[in-house]
């Protein structure tokens, strides 16, 4: 995630819940495009492939061809970088304070 | 971040680079709306307030009134939850493998 254009792609990709569901599935294990199509029966193959393209453009999915199959891997590095941008090394401490502030404001 | 509708709001909010810049500024310290308007001289007050509203709807900014001033605080809890959704406790190890895979694919 070298610049803001990359970030635009990342958040555009994450903004669609079906793409988040695809990432959820890839978190468990890499899947072929065929496996993903079977898992999401309510989407046709073209739609799944379009979602994968958006995820790949954002570098959230890395595809690796093996023979005739295309294995899709989750790349969580951009997500880690999003985290590191706004959550410092003192995250645990800061988050506790913010969590308390949130509760105070909600009371 | 209890459900996917909350996530829609979070990624919509993060999708705009000016809003990411506002969060960058709030990471350093809470700011009043006036301070943010002074920092972003190329945006008028209404635009800054609209961006803050989107961030607040996504729970990424928590506003606290003190007298006539409105202090905006970064709430990084949703960002931590995004991280935790796709990066497991074994993150360090997994990220190393993925990082290597990425390098292999790029070579």
Question: How many distinct helices of chain A?
Answer: 6
Quick one: which chains have the greatest interface?
A: A-B, 35 and 35 residues
Query: In the CATH hierarchy, what is the architecture of the domain at 4-75 in chain A at level 2?
Result: Orthogonal Bundle
CATH class of the domain at 4-75 in chain A: Mainly Alpha
**Beta-strand residue percentage of chain A:** 5-15%
Provide the gyration radius of chain A in Å. Answer: 17 Å
Low-confidence stretches of chain A: none
CATH homologous superfamily assignment of the domain at 4-75 in chain A: Winged helix-like DNA-binding domain superfamily/Winged helix DNA-binding domain
What is the 3D shape of chain A?
Answer: elongated
What share of the residues of chain A lie within helices?
Answer: 55-70%
Record keyword descriptors for this entry:
alpha+beta, Arc Repressor Mutant, subunit A, 6 helices, 107 residues, elongated, homodimer, 64% helix, 3-stranded antiparallel beta sheet
